[in-house]
Amino acid sequence: MTGSTNIYVSGTGCTKVGEHWGTSLRHLAWEAVNLALLSSNTKKPDAIFVGNMLSSSLSQQLNVGALVADFCGFRGTEAITVEAAGASGAAALRQAILAIRSGEINTALVVGVEKMTDAVGPDVTTAIAGGADSDWELAHGLTAPAIAALIMRRYMYEHSVPTDGLSGFSVNAHKNASTNSYAMFRNLISNEQYSRGAMVSSPVNVFDSAPDADGAAALVITSSDRELVEGRSIQIAASNLTTDSLAIHDREDLLTFSAAQTSARYAYDQAGIDANDIDVAEIYDRFGVYAAMSLEACGFADWGSGWEMAQNGSVGLQGSLPISTFGGLKARGNPGGATGVYQIVEIAQQLAGTAKDNQVSDVKWALAQCLGSNGGTAVTHILNVVG
Known about the structure:
Low-confidence stretches: none
Strand content: 15-25%
């Protein structure tokens, strides 16, 4: 992230994640946008960037950027939709940052919105699977859980991971979600419950896999120094987007998220810090094995040892590196293309000290990394407290 323009988060908002059968895509977006604008005291953004993954497939809705701009009262404002599979929301934030740094705009509204329940069953599974390589994976029947199962089985074999070795990620996520009012699943689970979980795609069981859901989150970012809460400005210190091959068979190492590794490294360089400086992280825990591999890619654990951080308690709210502090994708829920914006809302709360029962103590630096297409796209943002 070049240039001298500092960028700040001046407002945040999000809806409860869940099955919003009676709420439309546009209404979900409006609810989050309204909260973000109120918290930032912004009347009108210069431009709007909307992250969405599946509206064209599930809601028969293209041009969500214009839809959101119009419905939220900003007809005529520049607005665009950004799609990068599960990383769509994070990619939308990346584009907003680039626009502010270009000098063309001063304030941007970033919205992530997804409506999974506009379709059911195989239609949703097929739509989500479109994030993989359609010729080499989707055409052969590989779904997202099936790809995760292939990776997980190899990960467990290569690193001698016991059958319940990844359970700690799910247990931690549900514990943190239990005190999060906008989480989808607020129930606690135990290692024993994890071990009894029904198989989705062996060895991935129901507790390894995040629930697909509806939700919307929004951010106001600006080049003007504004306090998110009194006495605390939240600055976006680094932003990076990196890609890898979509098809997993084309990757140099099946068990390394290379794009995530490169993206994190560039983000650390931009922020002038390293992994040891990060106090809290929101990573892409759509599947337990992805959480382990993301910890390794971001430099928080050595190759093959990411799973141990969940087993020894390092990722808990009181641990050395808290993750999924509001439940992560696993228990807060996975609102598809909105996920990356939820992550930033959550780490902004941590940095502002407004996370209530989910607050991590003494947070100065926070990282959010979102993945699309099983690691084919990785977007990393680093935020810090100013003042």
